[in-house]
Design brief:
elongated; 135 residues
Length: 135
């Protein structure tokens, strides 16, 4: 393969990776927007007491700047309500972990398209290095 062909293959591979990256970024933005909407709805539900009195009190304290969701989850907020919520969260996470273990689910893998694009890019770079003179 001559250097011109190798460079062209590298450009094509790079274009494919850039296109896929742009598509993934767009999808990420869409998911972030949806997540923000869900978070807003969750906050409103907590304010109304739909997640129990403990979360209602904690959300009021969050709104007043007296605590944060991070402080509640991480155990920095030592109020009775925060302790109760952490206990509930631990129980819920334990149930989720048990279900996940029972179902045999593992970590999420790269998409096949992204994995293939990475493989093609590596192969093109290796070919390009092979045809370039040292130095």
């Amino acid at each position: 393969m001559n250097p011109t062909d190798a460079i062209e293959q590298l450009r094509q591979a790079t274009a494919r990776v850039e296109a896929r990256t742009a598509a993934l970024a767009s999808e990420r933005r869409r998911r972030e927007d949806e997540s923000a909407k869900r978070q807003g709805a969750l906050i409103e539900q907590r304010r109304k007491g739909e997640h129990g009195r403990d979360w209602q009190v904690l959300q009021q304290r969050i709104d007043l700047g007296q605590t944060t969701e991070f402080d509640i989850v991480q155990g920095i907020d030592l109020s009775n309500e925060a302790r109760a919520v952490r206990k509930q969260m631990g129980e819920a996470l334990g149930k989720v972990a048990d279900k996940r273990e029972e179902s045999g689910e593992g970590p999420v893998a790269l998409t096949p398209e992204l994995s293939e694009a990475q493989d093609r890019l590596v192969a093109t770079l290796q070919r390009l290095r092979a045809v370039q003179p040292p130095g």
